[in-house]
Amino acid sequence: MDGPRPFVHPEHDGVPRRPFTGRCFVPATSSYHFCSFLGPSMQNPFRLTRWFAILGLLTTALVSVASSLLLSRFLVGNLLRQDANVSMEFVQGIVEVQHARSYFTREREADNNLVEFFDRIATMPDVVRANVFSRDRTIIWSSDSSLIGMKFEDNPELDEALHGKLHVGVDTVGTKAEHALLPATVLRYVENYLPVRSGQDVVGVIEVYKNPRALFEAIEDGTRLVWWSGVGGGLFLYGLLLWVVRRADRIIQSQQARLVESETLAALGVMASAVAHGIRNPLASIRTSAELNLDSPSATVRESSGDIVDEVDGLERWVRDLLAYAVPESGEPENVQIAQVLDDSLGSFARVFQRRAIRVATSSLHEAPAVRGDAALLTQVFNCLLTNAMDAMPSGGLVELAISKPPDEGKLRISISDNGAGVAPEELPNVFVPRRSTKSTGLGVGLPLAKRIVERFGGAIELVGRATGGATVNVDLVIAR
């Protein structure tokens, strides 16, 4: 049979497994794939800020324009009606004093006092024309004598006033027949139809055309203020809500990232348990067999056996890192002598470094103060970083460890540098993202695990390129007090 044989685990009743490539490990018959476990909603997230920016702007603009339009119309209508009410009360008072009912019904001619009253109306400030209508729609008096005796049948505003309703409106010259002979120098008028009452009966109507410049200016100022307030308030509200939504969106994205990480850990836990169970026992047998040959009289056998032991140890560390990433950390931070942790890590790599011609240079390690953390977890962090440095220098090189003080007060910086191939600039943003490995044989869990551990203890970790080649990882830890 050509090709690799599928691995059959005794506990899975002969279910075939895909060959393990260092990336995914799931049953071949399963439709659930670890590398694509995210659903469509995770792969195509809802852009809350973008949608709110568009829809919120449209809605805010619509509400601002509508409210400004309604308020400006309300303001204009109230100012005009208030002015008309004052005029109507003034006229009604004079009519009652003059007992003018008979004049509107034309039972008798207007005397000098009533004519003087009408003339006074015509000469009021801003009045352009005044017409007095009887019940039969006939003009019985006008400031323009040529209109006296004329009748206007098609006049809805006059009909409203004859039914006792005050009519107020703003018109332009030439829109109605009764606008004939109005001055052409003024294009906009306030047209008031003032019902005249005698008791409960409407006996006539006084029509007043006015050009109130001061009132028009007040209306324009008020309308301008309403629009500026509406637009300004809308923009302020939109900006405030946009800030709140952007902040909420960031929180949602952060929580979503944590949810994705939790689901990733759950999938890794399943995978890690299968890998550990299926690999660790054979690894132990392989290592034991290789150790038996370390005392062989043949130098070639001893060298080959040593290589096997080193590779098995490396694979064991890889499995251990995988399990550590999948299992949440526990325990509380304590004071840790970081110098001892670094010595332990370097000691565990001494033999493999020697075999791979990797030199180690340290600076001020034993002068480092204690830090807050967990000795076992921090050892795992530095083992991961030393492994990455070793993998970056397959032909040998130099690993440098240095202690310094970072810009953040109260922290200690441990820098691990190598002179290997380094990391491409476009890969730097992804080095701490789970399952994003820059190595063809890597799982992409080492640096994310180190980041989780360091941040759990209030520290920070970063990877930067070196101008002379290679890379440097800076680990900032909180100094114990």
From TrEMBL:
Gene3D superfamilies: 1.10.287.130, Histidine kinase-like ATPase, C-terminal domain (3.30.565.10). One of its GO terms (molecular function) is ATP binding. It comes from the Bacteria. The keyword Membrane applies. The chain crosses the membrane at residues 51-71, 225-245. Coiled coil: none annotated. InterPro entries: HATPase_C_sf (IPR036890), HATPase_dom (IPR003594), His_kinase_dom (IPR005467), HisK_dim/P_dom (IPR003661), HisK_dim/P_sf (IPR036097), Sensor-like_sf (IPR029151), Sig_transdc_His_kin-like_C (IPR004358). The keyword Transmembrane applies. It catalyses: ATP + protein L-histidine = ADP + protein N-phospho-L-histidine. It is found in: Cell membrane. Its main location: membrane. Its EC number is 2.7.13.3. GO terms for cellular component: plasma membrane. It is a multi-pass membrane protein. This is histidine kinase. It comes from Ramlibacter pinisoli. The lineage of its organism: Bacteria, Pseudomonadati, Pseudomonadota, Betaproteobacteria, Burkholderiales.
